[in-house]
Specification:
The chain is α/β, with parallel strands linked by helices. Helix content is about 30%, strand content about 20%. It contains 17 helices and 24 strands.
């Protein structure tokens, strides 16, 4: 038996390749499925099953594309209903894969169809569990995402999750390996470890939600406490995963369309397309197309795109670094943005050379901010990091305006300004600045280097 975790840092997501006796299974595949097919070919195996732990909200799974290309059977857990051909397992059903057996354990709570898959080795011994979003390392799945679909409150779903964990997972031997669907950075939990593989025994010792003396009432309170609002794209992704979507090959064919500046501008105007610049944040700051927004490929690109671009059907034109066009379309497709209509050939240089206007981000250094704060007491500083980052340490007079909420916080910037924005290192504050400037707020100044640079000055901080 062979198990490989295929981890995608941008989404903090783990897919899994399982091989035994010439047969393979994939758990929770990403939308780009060729790596799984290539992996199976390398082993000379046939992909027999595609196991889905639930209808994912934070990414579009590759189950349909993979099934179409391989003929593998798509397996969901009890209560799942799809608009395509799939197999709904019953609780406790076993699937033979070569010399091993994979057992479906219905573990509702995160969603109603949530199912964990327990793999038994060739001797029939419990070996590992693919726990999806039911159990993470250090946390459990948030119970608020499926409330409408289940017609239940988050407290009721949390109660189901408590029962699932204690009757289906915590009863397993401490040596059983835990392979979760996500790690730290995912919006599907709030306290996930940076580790991506653990054991049942380790989680019993370290995971707050698996305390042996924990009552159901305590569990419900602690699991639901402090949940941030889920990103707006989550329901749209669930719909795609349940009802189907276009193949990635189709999206690439449609989106890899090189456009000269004249055509690029015409399409942007005629189709009200969003112009998305995915270059490095330093390059964007120096020169960009007025009205475009920045979300760089070299950060948590897909989750931020999903969080900040309200409509996944929004037509998108993009500017990308050389050699990264396919990557841009692929990573947008991971969160359901399937309406990419082309890119600017020649990039920002071609735009500038055509005689068109460019804009730039006004910035200051942390040292310049320190001098400014010494001269005046009313400097308007906005820290766009997450609340938990802000509470660990921030400038005394800074207001926390998280990037995830920037579209809802526009009124904060209606004053005279200027407003000084910073994040941890510069990536998120440039995103926020670009969005504000695209909405006509030109009184925004970015602090280069973010909080990391600010800590090197004598600016007063709360820690």
């Amino acid at each position: 038996m062979k198990i490989e975790q295929i981890y995608t840092g941008c989404l903090a997501q783990g897919a899994y390749y399982i091989e035994s006796g010439g047969e393979a299974a994939i758990v929770d595949p990403l939308r780009e499925v060729d790596p799984y097919i290539d992996r199976a070919k390398k082993d000379g195996t046939t992909i027999k099953y595609i196991f889905e732990t639930h209808f994912h909200a934070d990414f579009v799974s590759g189950h349909l594309n993979l099934a179409e290309k391989t003929g593998a059977k798509i397996v969901f857990g009890p209560t799942a209903e799809t608009s395509f051909d799939s197999y709904v397992a019953f609780d406790g059903e076993e699937f033979r894969l070569g010399k091993v057996v994979i057992k479906a354990l219905h573990t509702p709570g995160h969603t109603m169809e949530s199912t964990s898959y327990l793999i038994k080795d060739h001797n029939g011994k419990d070996y590992a569990i693919f726990s999806g979003d039911t159990l993470f390392l250090g946390d459990v799945g948030r119970p608020d995402l499926a409330q409408k679909a289940a017609n239940m409150t988050q407290e009721q779903l949390a109660g189901l999750l408590y029962d699932s964990l204690r009757t289906k997972i915590m009863t397993l031997d401490d040596s059983v390996i835990v392979y979760p669907a996500h790690g730290a950075g995912s919006a599907c939990g709030k306290n996930m470890s940076s580790e991506t593989v653990g054991t049942i025994g380790g989680q019993k010792l370290s995971n707050y939600a698996l305390r042996g003396n924990m009552t159901k009432e305590q569990f419900i309170k602690e699991v639901t406490d402090g949940l941030l609002p889920p990103p707006e794209y989550f329901p749209a992704n669930v719909k795609l995963n349940r009802e189907g979507y276009a193949t990635l090959d189709t999206l690439l064919e449609r989106g890899i369309l090189a456009l000269e500046p004249d055509t690029f501008e015409k399409i942007a105007d005629q189709h009200n397309a969003l112009v998305l610049d995915v270059r490095n944040h330093s390059d964007f700051s120096k020169s960009f197309i007025p009205g475009s927004i920045f979300i760089g490929l070299d950060g948590d690109f897909a989750p931020w795109a999903g969080t900040l671009i309200a409509d996944i059907e929004q037509p998108i034109l993009f500017i990308a670094p050389e050699g990264r066009k396919r990557e841009t379309i692929t990573r947008l497709s991971r969160v359901g943005f399937d309406n990419v209509v082309g890119f600017l050939t020649g990039g920002i240089d071609a735009w500038r050379e055509s005689g068109r206007e460019v804009d730039s981000v006004e910035s200051i250094s942390a040292n310049e901010l320190e001098i400014l704060m010494q001269k005046q007491n009313d400097v308007a500083i906005h820290d766009v990091r997450k609340p938990n980052e802000y509470h660990k340490g921030h400038i005394t007079i800074a207001e926390n305006t998280p990037l995830a909420a920037i579209n809802q916080k526009m009124d904060v910037f209606k004053g005279k300004g200027p407003f000084y924005l910073h994040c941890a290192g510069g990536y998120r504050s440039v995103i926020a600045t670009s969005i504000l400037k695209s909405r006509g707020y030109n009184n925004i100044i970015n602090v280069n280097g973010g909080y990391a640079a600010i800590e090197e000055t004598d600016i007063r901080l709360i820690t």
